[in-house]
Amino acid sequence: MLCRICKSKGKRTKASIYIRHHRLALCKEHFIEWFEKQTAKTIKEFNMFSKDEKVLIAVSGGKDSLSLWYALHRLGYKTYGFHISLGIEGWEYSKKSLDICKKFSERIERPLIIFDIKDEFGYSIEEIAKGSGRKDVCSVCGTFKRYLMNKICKEQGFKVVATGHNLDDESALLLSNTIRWEIGYLGRQHPVLPEKNGFARKVKPFVFFTEKEIVSYAILNKIEYLETGCPNAKEATSILYKRSLAMLEHEMPGTKLRFYKEFLKKARPIFEKELKEHLELNECKICKMPTTASICSVCRTLERLKINVKSR
């Protein structure tokens, strides 16, 4: 199969990737060019951030976040990496993740901000979840990550934080929330969550790319990334939703993209109206971060942990 763009110019260059739902075959050079143009288009379409703003990029060491950092860096944005070391021991996951992020930071010569949960709180994320009586490590991890991203933004003057969530992630989340009719989550699911009431703007520039496309971008740009997923994510329900959508995508290319884009265009505005116009936020009595309760969920979790440790 030949690259479509090269072919249009009278060249017979072999394609490196074929994107089924776009019916698009591209060589290495033109795929990278297409990928970065699409990223810039998404940023512009949703008014995510400008070239004048500092962009904090949450990097885990995986393909999505490192590819996002690389693409935004090449597009000329003021990028800063932010890595949370979770202290996960399985497969030396956290150590490998941190090492990869450090090497990548050195490669593109951009700063990397590191936050070590165990150094800061005295416990790893697994120990926090178990010690506070929470069985689901993933939900605790997600809560702490969101909290820390916002905390770093507030402390270091960032207005926007970007994450590497992709089309597979977003369509699986949408299917999950639709099956349960989670109106609040459906109303908030969007490529941009605006900065409001002390919360930094959250953006997802890769929401229209599949995992395959991002992997291809990473490989073609020789980006070293952690190929093994988090050991705690083995039982995550999102895996089942991704498999279900992958089956549909195989039979009907473009299903995931249509599902997500049509939701944003037609359904989300309806669910958004169901949300309260103004969320009443307070300042957490312990950490001073914004919260809907008197004490935020992170501080409550840490308080339960202290109580359980003392009672042993």
Structure description:
This protein has 312 residues and is of the alpha/beta class. The chain has 2 domains: 49-276, Rossmann fold (3-Layer(aba) Sandwich), CATH 3.40.50; 279-311, no CATH class. It has 13 helices and 10 strands. The longest helix is centred in the middle third of the chain and has 20 residues, at 137-156. The termini are far apart. The mean pLDDT is 91. Keywords: 4Fe-4S, ATP-binding, Iron, Iron-sulfur, Magnesium, Metal-binding, Nucleotide-binding, Transferase, Zinc. GO terms for molecular function: 4 iron, 4 sulfur cluster binding; ATP binding; metal ion binding; transferase activity; tRNA binding. Residues 54-227 form the tRNA(Ile)-lysidine/2-thiocytidine synthase N-terminal domain.
Q: Tell me about the largest β-sheet.
A: 6 strands, mixed
In the sheet with the most strands, the strands line up as 5-4-3-6-8-7
Query: How large is the count of helical segments?
Result: 13
| CATH A-level architecture of the largest domain | 3-Layer(aba) Sandwich
Computed Rg: 20 Å
Assign the structural class, choosing from mainly alpha, mainly beta, alpha/beta, alpha+beta, or little secondary structure.
alpha/beta
The CATH class name of the largest domain reads Alpha Beta
Shape: globular
CATH topology of the largest domain: Rossmann fold
Tell me what portion of residues adopts beta-strand conformation: 5-15%
Domain tRNA(Ile)-lysidine/2-thiocytidine synthase N-terminal: 54-227
Keywords: 4Fe-4S, ATP-binding, Iron, Iron-sulfur, Magnesium, Metal-binding, Nucleotide-binding, Transferase, Zinc
Domain 2-thiouridine synthetase TtuA-like N-terminal LIM: 3-32
Cofactor: Mg(2+); [4Fe-4S] cluster
